[in-house]
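ok trying again, last paste got cut off:
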Amino acid sequence: MQEIESREKQAARFLMVFFLVLLVLPAALAQTQAPAAPPATQHHRKVVVSVPHRKLALIEDGKVKKVFPVAVGATLTPSPTGSFEVKTLVVKPTYYHPGKVIPAGADNPLGTRWIGLSTKGYGIHGTNVESSIGKAASHGCIRMHRKDLEELFTAMQVGDHVEIRAEADQETAAMFGDPAGADAAPDATKTAPVEINPTAAADANGNAQN
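nice, full thing came through this time. structure:
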């Protein structure tokens, strides 16, 4: 009889300890868990290109982060104007033109990066004619110096907005100053090399304007 009572007491103590563990363990685990990391900050980015200024501004969270000189479309092949989105980001693009394919390298007219826009066949890219930057020299695309383009490329994501403005306004004046000097720059229509969107076959089903 005493042996049975002893076993019952042991069982009762075991159950009591078990229930105490169930009550205490969740609280202990909650205290030892690291606090959840805050969500990554989402920055709102857009690019504004002023054709008369021949400059491009990277804007983040409403503030101008950096301004770059660019080449814009020549008189006969002007850059498209309006609001667009970034559709493709290509590293080391290949240049395609009927009868000609130029792989990535120093002779590639697109430079080292291609930022494709939502308007058929146009984008922001590099150039193998660095002297064209600051002029109305392209077949419609926006050209940049290699280092500038690579810096901009790392900041951009698919879906970011790009505005190309044909005329100066208060906002572009605040970003870039007086466009008079840019307006006086020569038109390089006759010396602009023909360039083709590296994703033309997939995105435009034909030749792109660059």
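cool. The longest strand covers residues 82-91. Confidence is low (pLDDT under 50) at residues 28-34, 188-208.
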